């Protein structure tokens, strides 16, 4: 009887965590869309899908889905037998996140800041939203988005620091997006000063939230 009660409590906690992750994915996507709509570039992890969406018909959400599936395949190659089958749960998370990106881009379709100051304000608001979304993903502690999971895989295989690898990973994504834009449009599009600001401010916001709002995890227990 006692074991049944413990199992029921564990299931209830897991359900709460997945519900919190679901909400976090929406906040995450809203932050990405807010940053993108600011018109000063987008977040490093979204830079490749967004650049592709500028040159082809599929939406940012569809390219986000395809790009994240590629990242999942990279994890499989890197980890091989060490790949945890539970990490295939990234696939439904990718689907939901990609749908949320297209949904929030549609919701924010009215957003067309013209003055540079308003672009900066929108960018900063988006960074705060995305940083809080990343924090929610951390608090849920069930499934990582492929961007972070791929960095984790690289760190595991190379036995190097996650934080440093995250910086290298984001920088690489930004450079690749810039090169793709030059090839497609003969100019840099989708990657601007906002991309660099987002790379710094989103992480700082997530760290701030983790330090000051860690008590939020109590609601999931």
Key structural traits:
221 residues, mainly alpha, 0% strand, globular
Q: How would you describe what is shown here?
A:
The chain has 221 residues and is mostly helical. The chain is 75% helix and 0% strand. It is built from eight helices and no strands. It has helices at residues 2-37, 47-55, 60-79, 90-107, 116-140, 146-158, 162-185, 193-212. Helix 3 packs antiparallel against helix 4 and helix 6 packs across helix 7. The longest helix is centred in the first third of the chain and has 36 residues, at 2-37. It is globular, with a radius of gyration of 18 Å. The relative contact order is 0.19. The mean pLDDT is 89.
Q: Report the order of strands and helices.
A: HHHHHHHH
Helix content: over 70%
The gross shape turns out to be globular
Number of strands: 0
Strand content: under 5%
Write the layout of secondary structure elements.
Elements: H1 2-37, H2 47-55, H3 60-79, H4 90-107, H5 116-140, H6 146-158, H7 162-185, H8 193-212
At a glance:
With 221 residues, the chain is an all-alpha fold. It is built from eight helices and no strands. Helix 2 (47-55) packs parallel to helix 7 and helix 3 (60-79) runs antiparallel to helix 4 (90-107).
């Amino acid at each position: 009887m006692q074991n049944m009660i413990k199992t029921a409590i564990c299931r209830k906690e897991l359900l709460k965590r997945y519900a919190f992750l679901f909400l976090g994915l929406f906040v995450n996507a809203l932050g990405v869309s807010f940053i993108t709509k600011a018109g000063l570039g987008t977040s490093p992890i979204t830079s490749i899908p967004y650049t592709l969406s500028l040159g082809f018909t599929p939406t940012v959400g569809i390219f986000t889905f395809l790009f994240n599936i590629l990242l999942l395949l990279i994890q499989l190659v890197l980890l091989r037998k060490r790949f945890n089958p539970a990490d295939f749960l990234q696939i439904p998370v990718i689907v939901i996140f990609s749908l949320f990106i297209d949904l929030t881009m549609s919701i924010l379709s009215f957003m067309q800041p013209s003055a540079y100051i308003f672009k900066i304000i929108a960018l900063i608001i988006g960074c705060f939203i995305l940083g809080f979304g990343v924090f929610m993903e951390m608090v849920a502690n069930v499934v990582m988005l492929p961007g972070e999971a791929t960095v984790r895989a690289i760190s595991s295989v190379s036995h190097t620091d996650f934080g440093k690898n995250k910086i290298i990973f984001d920088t690489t994504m930004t450079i690749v997006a810039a090169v793709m834009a030059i090839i497609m449009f003969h100019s840099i599009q989708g990657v601007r000063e906002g991309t660099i600001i987002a790379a710094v401010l989103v992480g700082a916001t997530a760290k701030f939230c983790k330090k000051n709002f860690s008590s939020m995890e109590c609601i999931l227990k």
